[in-house]
Every structure is written in structure tokens, then in C-alpha cells.
């Protein structure tokens, strides 16, 4: 690149910072209802997750390490105090946020994050009590730490999902590098696993490997790559997850206790250099096949089963954030099968990091951008 081109690139970057993208306020046609998409809040730095408080306001994580309170009108708070120190490099930082099932009584908030420490860093989960004015977390305690830590800044997984019976699922990435990813098949490692714990971090007695020698008792399922999308199916109360494939092969899986989902022995994709993953096989005995996959990838992050009244035709559909696809992906679900797919918001060109249903029945997404936004999706007739 020439010096002139370098100067031009620097000038363009400065221009974009000085004049950030305009807020979204558009109507889109879909295979079903027309939708109105509008910016609720902006100015967020790489937001990663969103959850609603009972009063209709929101908690939003920013990957560099801040937790923000956002009012229903879009007013963004100063950083909430008491958040643990995070390893904010690469894909690491402050990641998911979830409310305790009994939040109305105990005001407990859970966050997952990349935790620095001896041997590198790893996914951890902490919980604390949110103050009545939503300015601070108190009595913060770490309830889970992925072992082993690794010198990597990639593949933390990190979605937090309560199951309706008081258990907390935590999705854990395999930390990307060859020397780490093989541990997805090892039951004495948390890498490439989904774990199931009680809200205080203790292990439920009925976990599939509880009491088994040479197995970590928190493990619920194994053989995963990097799960950044997970939600309970409200019809079955079974966990569904979507994990990033390598070059090709994003996977939608129904998660059953004790099952092996194959990575890195089997994969529907290839390594980023084009070489086969392992022996290049896509199926193996004793390893669970996905119910749906994407090649090219959508780069999935965040998902929710829709059950609101605002979009009656979409009740029961699964909405998935897409990073590489810059889309909100809508999947029609019939039992344990995907029967249709539609991509929304592609023309905005924004990385969709998380998606949730609001208390008003609208769909809310956060965009993984340096000037990240919260977008509200409602029927166009209500605009």
C-alpha cells in the first residue's frame, strides 16, 4: 500500500469516527409481516449480550469490560461498578449476562467473562447483587472457572442459560488452537464442553458424569467447538445450541446429557487453511449429528425462541444472530427439525451479536460494532 493510500485510509477512519453511522429507522419486507427496525440506544462499545430487567430496562455487556444499564427509552448509564476484572483481548472480555430465576426477590445477576490467571485465561462465571438503582454489583463471587486456563484469546463460548429447574448451563469454547481443541474429547478438561451447575456453583447430583472417576462433574455434554448461541426450547425444556464451525459447518444441536458432539474428530467444515479437520470425516459412531448446519457459515451468536404476541406468525420460531452473515436468521421449527429459514436485516451490514425477546413482544438485537446499537424490531403497522 502506498503512503498516499495509507494517509487516505487514516483520513477515512477519522471521518467515520467523527461521523458515526446514522441511527436505524427503517421498514423491511419479510416472508411474513413487514417489520419496523429502530435504534433504541447507540454508543456502546462492542456489546456482547442483552437481558431485560422486570421494569423493562436492560442490562448490556460491553466486551472491553463494562456492564451498562439502559432504560426503556435508551438512556445508557455509566459503567456499573463491581464487575470482575476481565481479559479484554481478541475475543475475550465481558461476555454474557443473565438474571437469576428469582431476581425479583434476590436481585442476583450472573456474568461470564474471560478471566486472567496463572497459565493464561479462561471462561469464568461470577454473580453479584444488583443495587436498587442499578449502579453497582455487590457481594460478587466467582462460581465457576474453566480448567485448564490457556494462552489463547479465542473461543470462550460463554452463553448462560437457566433451565427452568434452577440449574445454570454454561457453554465453553475449546480455545481454538490445535493443542487445546483436542481436549474437547477429554472428560478431565472443561474445554469444548457445556457444563451444568447450581446457581451457587455446586454440582447437581444428577449430572451425567457426577461421581465418575477421571471426569469433571460439571460436564453435561462434550465434543463442542465454540458455542456462542444457546437457549432452552420452551416446548421441551431441552437446551439447544449453535456453535461456530471452522471454514464451513456451523451446527445447530439439541443437547442431551452425556452425549458427544464430535469436535474435532468430525466436522462439516475444514480448517481455515483448507486442510481437513482430523481425518476429514463428517460422521462417526457414538457422536451426535447436528439437526441443521450452515456452509458458508453465518457465524452464530445469540439465539432465542420467540413466543411473543407482536408476531403471531413467528411464535415458536428460533431467531439467531449472525456475525459473518450480518443477519438476523429466522428458523422455522417443526418438532426437532428446521423446516424453513429466512435472513433479516442483511442490508444493514451489521454484526448481530445477541438477540432476545422484550417484555413488549418486540425482538431486540445488539450489534457488535465499535459504535454498537440496540435495535428494536416491531410490526411495521405499529410504527
CATH topology: Neuraminidase
CATH level-1 class: Mainly Beta
Helix content: under 10%
In terms of structural class, how would the helical and strand content be classed? mainly beta
Number of contiguous helices: 3
Identify the CATH architecture: 6 Propeller
Distance between the termini: 47 Å
How would you characterize the largest beta sheet?
Answer: 5 strands, antiparallel
Mean pLDDT across all amino acids: 94
What's the structural domain tally? 1
Looking across the biggest beta sheet, what order are the strands in?
1-2-24-23-22
- As a whole number of angstroms, the C-alpha radius of gyration is 20 Å
Total DSSP E strands: 24
Describe the protein.
It is a single chain. The protein has a single domain, classed as Neuraminidase, CATH 2.120.10.30. It is built from 3 helices and 24 strands. The protein has helices at residues 3-18, 103-106, 178-181; strands at residues 25-28, 35-44, 47-52, 58-62, 66-70, 94-99, 108-117, 120-130, 137-145, 160-162, 168-171, 193-197, 219-222, 226-233, 238-244, 250-254, 292-294, 300-305, 318-322, 327-334, 337-344, 352-357, 363-367, 372-379. The strands form 6 sheets. It has a 5-stranded antiparallel beta sheet with strand order 1-2-24-23-22, with no helix packed on it.
List the SSEs and their pairings.
Blueprint: H1 3-18, E1 25-28, E2 35-44, E3 47-52, E4 58-62, E5 66-70, E6 94-99, H2 103-106, E7 108-117, E8 120-130, E9 137-145, E10 160-162, E11 168-171, H3 178-181, E12 193-197, E13 219-222, E14 226-233, E15 238-244, E16 250-254, E17 292-294, E18 300-305, E19 318-322, E20 327-334, E21 337-344, E22 352-357, E23 363-367, E24 372-379
Antiparallel strand pairs: 1-2, 2-24, 3-4, 4-5, 6-7, 7-8, 8-9, 10-11, 11-12, 12-13, 14-15, 15-16, 16-17, 18-19, 19-20, 20-21, 22-23, 23-24
Amino acid at each position: 500500500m502506498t503512503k498516499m493510500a495509507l494517509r487516505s485510509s487514516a483520513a477515512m477512519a477519522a471521518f467515520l469516527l467523527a461521523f458515526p453511522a446514522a441511527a436505524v429507522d427503517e421498514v423491511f419486507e419479510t416472508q411474513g409481516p413487514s417489520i419496523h427496525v429502530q435504534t433504541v440506544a447507540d454508543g456502546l462499545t462492542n456489546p456482547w449480550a442483552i437481558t431485560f430487567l422486570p421494569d423493562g430496562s436492560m442490562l448490556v455487556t460491553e466486551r472491553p469490560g463494562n456492564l451498562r444499564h439502559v432504560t426503556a427509552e435508551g438512556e445508557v448509564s455509566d459503567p456499573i461498578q463491581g464487575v470482575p476484572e476481565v481479559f479484554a483481548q481478541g475475543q475475550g472480555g465481558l461476555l454474557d449476562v443473565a438474571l437469576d430465576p428469582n431476581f425479583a426477590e434476590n436481585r442476583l445477576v450472573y456474568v461470564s467473562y474471560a478471566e486472567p490467571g496463572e497459565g493464561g485465561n479462561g471462561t469464568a462465571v461470577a454473580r453479584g447483587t444488583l443495587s436498587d438503582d442499578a449502579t453497582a454489583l455487590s457481594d460478587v463471587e466467582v462460581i465457576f472457572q474453566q480448567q485448564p486456563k490457556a494462552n489463547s484469546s479465542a473461543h470462550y463460548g460463554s452463553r448462560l442459560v437457566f433451565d427452568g429447574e434452577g440449574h445454570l448451563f454454561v457453554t465453553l469454547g475449546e480455545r481454538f488452537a490445535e493443542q487445546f481443541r483436542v481436549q474437547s474429547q477429554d472428560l478431565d478438561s472443561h474445554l469444548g464442553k457445556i457444563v451444568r451447575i447450581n446457581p451457587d456453583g455446586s454440582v447437581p447430583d444428577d449430572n451425567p458424569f457426577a461421581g465418575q472417576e477421571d471426569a469433571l462433574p460439571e460436564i453435561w455434554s462434550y465434543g463442542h467447538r465454540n458455542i456462542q448461541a444457546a437457549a432452552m426450547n420452551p416446548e421441551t425444556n431441552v437446551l439447544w445450541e449453535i456453535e461456530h464451525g471452522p471454514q464451513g459447518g456451523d451446527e445447530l444441536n439439541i443437547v442431551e446429557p452425556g452425549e458427544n458432539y464430535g469436535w474435532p474428530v468430525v466436522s462439516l467444515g475444514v480448517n481455515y487453511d483448507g486442510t481437513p479437520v482430523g481425518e476429514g470425516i463428517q460422521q462417526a459412531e457414538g457422536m451426535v449429528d447436528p439437526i441443521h448446519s450452515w456452509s458458508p457459515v453465518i457465524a452464530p451468536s445469540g439465539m432465542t425462541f420467540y413466543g411473543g404476541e407482536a408476531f403471531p406468525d413467528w411464535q415458536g420460531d428460533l431467531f439467531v444472530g449472525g456475525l459473518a452473515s450480518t443477519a438476523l436468521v429466522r428458523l422455522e421449527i417443526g418438532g426437532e427439525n428446521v423446516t424453513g429459514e429466512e435472513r433479516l436485516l442483511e442490508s444493514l451490514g451489521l454484526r448481530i451479536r445477541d438477540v432476545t425477546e422484550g417484555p413488549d413482544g418486540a425482538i431486540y438485537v445488539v450489534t457488535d460494532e465499535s459504535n454498537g446499537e440496540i435495535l428494536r424490531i416491531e410490526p411495521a403497522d405499529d410504527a
